[in-house]
Design brief:
CATH class: Mainly Alpha
Strand content: under 5%
CATH architecture: Orthogonal Bundle
Helix content: over 70%
CATH superfamily: MetI-like
Structural class: mainly alpha
Shape: flat
Number of domains: 1
Distance between the termini: 28 Å
Number of helices: 15
Length: 291
Amino acid sequence: MKKNNTKWVILFLAPGVLLFSFVMLSSLLVLIGTSFTDWFIGSKITFVGLKNYIYLFTEDKAFLQSIKNTFVWILLQSTIHVTIGVTVALLLSKKKWYSSPVRTIFFIPNIISSAALGMLFLCVMNPQFGLINGLVSRITGEKFIQNWYNDPKTAFLSVTLTWLPYAGLVTILVMAEMSSISEDLFEAARIDGATSFQIDMHIVLPLMKNIIGTCVILAATSMLQKLDVIMMTTSGGPGARTMNMPMYIYKTVFSNNNYSLANTQGVILIILGVVVLKVIRTLFRMDKEEE
C-alpha cells in the first residue's frame, strides 16, 4: 500500500519539481553565475570574480543608500504597519455597529493597484494643486507650496506614507485567526473580572503570536520587492534619497544596461531576504513550534 502511495506522490510531484527546476532553479543559477562576470548586452561575457561585489560595497554610494533605505522600510513595515493592522483588528473584533463599514473602508487601499495608488498620491501631494498644500494654505491663509516628493527633507517620509498606514491585509488575517479562539476563554476571563484590555493583552495577543509573525514576514518581504509606487512617485530620487534595492536593480538594468552588476545586486537582495526571514522566525520562535 505504501509503495503504491509513493508512486502516486512521485507522479504528482514530478511536474511541479521539474517546472520549479527549469524556471526557478536554473534562473537562480544563472543569476549567481553571471554575478561574477562583466556582462553588457551585446558584449562578450568575461569572468571578473568578486569585482562586482567589491565595487558595490566600497565605491557605489547609491547602492549603499538603497540598502539603508530598504532596511529602514523593512523595520517600519514590520513594526508600525503591523501594529496598526493588529490594533484595528482588536478594535473591530468588539463587534460594534461601526465594525463592518470600517473594516470595508480600511481594506479599500489594499485592493487598489499600486500604480493607481501612486498616481493618487502624486495628485494629493502635487505642489501646485495638491490637497495637502491646499489644506495648509486654507489653514494658514497664505499660499503654501511644498514639493513633497522632490524635497530631500520630505521625500522619504512622503513615499513611506503611500503604503505604511494601509494594513488592511494584516487586519483581515488577524481577525480570521481571532475567530478560531474559543468563546469559553473569553467567558472565563470575564467571570474572573478581566477587562477587555486585559483579555486582549493576556489572551488574544499571546494566541495570535504565529499569525502576527506571519504578518511581519509578509510586511518585511513586501519591502524587498517594492518597486511600482517608488517608480511612480520619485524613481528613487531626489538623488538616492528614496532609492531601494529593487528600484536600483531596475535602473542598473534599463538605464545602465549592466546586467552583471544588476544580477550581483539581485544575489545580495536574495541573501538579505533569507536573513530577514530567518531573523523574524527566530524572534517569534516559529521554527521551534513546528518541530
